Automatic annotation (TrEMBL):
Pathway assignment: Nucleotide-sugar biosynthesis; UDP-alpha-D-xylose biosynthesis; UDP-alpha-D-xylose from UDP-alpha-D-glucuronate: step 1/1
Name of the molecule in the record: UDP-glucuronate decarboxylase
This enzyme's EC code(s): 4.1.1.35
UniProtKB keywords: Decarboxylase, Glycoprotein, Golgi apparatus, Lyase, Membrane, NAD, Signal-anchor, Transmembrane, Transmembrane helix
Enzyme class: lyase
Membrane topology note: Single-pass type II membrane protein
GO molecular function: NAD+ binding; UDP-glucuronate decarboxylase activity
């Protein structure tokens, strides 16, 4: 049985990846320090014979007993609100954490896939974004802590490949959504759905003309799985190219949920990318992959998930207490 280590396992994407690899017959070791994740996301795997969990901060030395075939490094705050609140931890997990995991991969002769992001393209001047675009990032802006950590992560991963001959894979993930996102992580889908469920107005930042392209989690996980098992070592975009403005998206949510709540406009955060759409030509050709779940289907599943949350969870203003991590 092949063994895979998944970091960020208690998070949104990490927990779905654990499910996928178990379903495909792997032995899965999940690792997380719960800084933005939730134990609840892994509860259903607790007694699974092919799953174990290690609570650990990956910015500290990582020790795993026995052989390891694959590593998926998904530990990192991922929402703009989270990485603004914990900027130093964000930089550390992308740099020191990645370095530790590359070292572990080298020691175990394991193949490693790292989770990069469309944010490496910054506020893109090329549209849609293909893998050969170098990006337009403000290194010292508020999003720089995340964007530059991810760019460093790609650079050190390629260096380990070139210098040590490590088997590496890099996925550039575009906005992905689905069940197990944290309701109050500030990302637009949980934000709008939480507002609908609490009876609040929907908050659009800026005039809502900025665009995003949303990918359902099952499609994302399938793309990542295929990339890991492929023999391609350069970055690959995985996302859904169906682009929409945030204003149209808010209207879609209002229609989907049948609410009569209003839209209110707030200031656009600094360096918020004005447009984003993945060019997935490479993934289609290389992995024979493309997204299958359309937005209406995916949003319905996601909204039904948020509807199952308790009133207490719904009205908590923030689930996460970051105080113990600040300036560590
Ligand atoms: P998430 O916040 O739900 O999950 C991240 C997980 O990493 C959390 O469980 C958190 O506790 C854990 N973590 C953070 N720092 C850690 C550390 N130092 N040690 C151990 N665990 C740590 O976010 P997500 O949406 O699931 O994102 C997962 C990965 O995918 C991230 O690397 C993110 O950059 C990348 N990504 C996600 C998206 C998306 O749309 N969801 C887009 C681009 C990239
Ligand atoms: N956004 C919004 N209202 C919200 C939350 C987000 O209009 O309550 C906007 C945000 O400014 C951005 C887009 O929605 O333009 C997507 O934001 P998200 O935080 O989900 O991810 P990003 O793609 O910016 O990393």
């Amino acid at each position: 049985m092949k063994k895979v280590l998944i970091t960020g396992a208690a998070g949104f994407l990490g927990s779905h990846l654990c499910d996928k690899f178990i379903k495909e017959g792997f032995y899965v070791i999940g690792m997380d320090n719960f800084i933005t994740g939730d134990k609840k996301n892994l509860e259903h795997l607790e007694s699974h014979p092919n799953f174990e969990f290690i609570e650990h901060d990956v910015t500290e030395f990582i020790s795993i007993d026995g052989p390891l075939d694959y590593i998926l490094h998904f530990a990192s705050p991922a929402s703009p609100i989270d990485y603004l609140k914990i900027p130093i931890q964000t930089l550390k997990v992308g740099s020191l954490g990645t370095h530790n995991l590359l070292g572990l991969a080298k020691a175990k002769k394991a193949r490693i896939l790292i989770a990069s992001t469309s944010e490496v393209y910054g506020d893109p001047l090329v549209h849609p974004q293909s893998e050969d675009y170098y990006g337009n990032v403000n290194t010292i802006g508020p999003r720089g802590v995340y964007d530059e950590a991810k760019r460093f992560q790609e650079a050190i991963t390629m260096a380990y490949h070139r210098f040590h001959g490590l088997e590496t894979r890099i996925v550039r993930i575009f906005n992905t959504y689905g069940p197990r996102m944290r309701l109050n992580d500030g990302r637009v889908i949980p934000a709008f759905m939480g507002q609908v469920l609490r009876g609040e107005d929907l908050t659009i930042f800026g005039d809502g003309s900025q665009t995003r392209s949303f990918c359902y989690v099952d499609d994302q996980v399938e793309g990542i799985y295929r990339l890991l098992l492929s023999d391609y070592l350069y970055p690959v975009n995985i996302g859904n190219p169906h682009e929409i403005t945030i204003k149209e998206f808010a209207e879609e949510i209002i229609e989907l949920t049948g609410t009569d709540q209003k839209i209110v406009y707030k200031e656009l955060p600094q360096d918020d990318p004005l447009q984003r759409q993945p060019d997935i030509t490479l993934a289609k050709k290389l992995l024979n992959w493309e997204p299958k779940v359309d937005r209406k289907q995916g949003m319905t599943i996601t909204f039904n998930y948020f509807k199952t949350l308790s009133k207490e969870e719904l009205f908590k203003s923030e689930h996460k207490d970051f105080t113990s991590y600040i300036n560590k």
